[in-house]
Specification:
Helix content is 37%, strand content 15%. By secondary structure, the protein is α/β, with parallel strands linked by helices.
């Protein structure tokens, strides 16, 4: 029985349910020269063998400008996928330190949101009222600003990610750069994932937001939801932020994942699994 991931998630969000899961194994290939690999594979973090266990991907957004949140996020057990603002300072040093610890890097691309200002999005967000050439210039500059990224996800974007023309522009540049895309789903009817998939970009969307509220009990509940989804469909992508309550919860929760029967995976491996794509070095599930 094949159960669509969206249906499983809808059931889990509504109420606990016994749903038979369908776990597709990642496609494995022999290792090849990094120079011949697409960017999203070349800069991918090392992948622990799942050995039949469900996998959990944790993405931490808003990195590079929040202190002491950024160093605490970098100190989390690896591999965590860290999404960096393109306007942060000293990005080569910051991203390099995180990579040395075994983490994976994303560009956290600012995008237009409802009622948002530069104070919320940061400088040079992608906007639906700008000419395509200006949006492309902003996107290219942002990609070039953050080194060694496997791909990008959206910061804010409740307006931008609903616009097909703008998301097509993003998808084409991401494909040209051999990157992956994570739709953060800051609004339910985002078209970012759809446009990326149609353009042939390795892509997925997040399943859980960990910290919509700065409440420790709510964050713990979202981590429990993350575990339930992983057990039901075999893999899950959860997004959080480098805030004190979130980091407190993750610092307590991440070290116990293996004992609970989970394995922590970088985003690149989960994208490969979900898209049934060849991923050099990804162990069989």
């Amino acid at each position: 029985m094949i159960v669509h991931r969206r249906n499983v998630l809808a059931g889990l969000l509504a109420a606990p349910a016994l749903i038979r899961s369908a776990r597709a194994a990642p496609v494995v290939s022999e290792q090849r020269s990094p120079a011949l690999q697409p960017r999203w594979q070349r800069f991918a973090a090392a992948v622990p063998a799942p050995d039949g266990r469900p996998t959990i991907t944790i993405v931490i957004d808003d990195l590079g400008v929040i202190h002491p949140g950024t160093p605490r996020a970098v100190a989390l057990p690896a591999p965590v996928t860290l999404a960096w603002f393109p306007f942060a300072r000293n990005l080569p040093e910051q991203v390099g330190a995180a990579t040395e610890r075994g983490h994976e890097a994303l560009l956290h691309m600012p995008m237009q949101a409802f009622g948002s200002s530069i104070a919320w999005t940061g400088p040079d967000p992608l906007r639906i009222d700008l000419p395509p050439a200006e949006n492309l210039r902003r996107l290219v500059a942002a990609i070039d600003a953050v080194p060694d990224t496997v791909g990008l996800n959206n910061h804010m974007g409740s307006v931008a990610t609903r616009d097909v023309a703008l998301m097509d522009l993003v998808a084409q540049e991401v494909r040209r750069r051999d990157m992956l895309l994570l739709d953060s789903l800051t609004i339910g009817h985002s078209v970012a994932y759809r446009c990326a998939a149609q353009a042939g970009v390795p892509a997925t969307s997040r399943d859980v937001f960990l910290d919509n509220t700065a409440d420790t009990a709510m964050i713990v509940a979202q981590l429990q939801l993350t575990e339930r989804i992983a057990r039901q469909i075999g893999h899950v992508v959860a997004i959080g932020h480098p805030r004190p309550h979130t980091l407190d919860a993750l610092e307590a929760w991440l070290p116990g994942l293996e004992a609970k029967g989970f394995v922590l995976w970088p985003l690149s491996a989960t994208v490969a699994w979900r898209n049934e794509m060849i991923m050099p070095g990804v162990p069989a599930a």
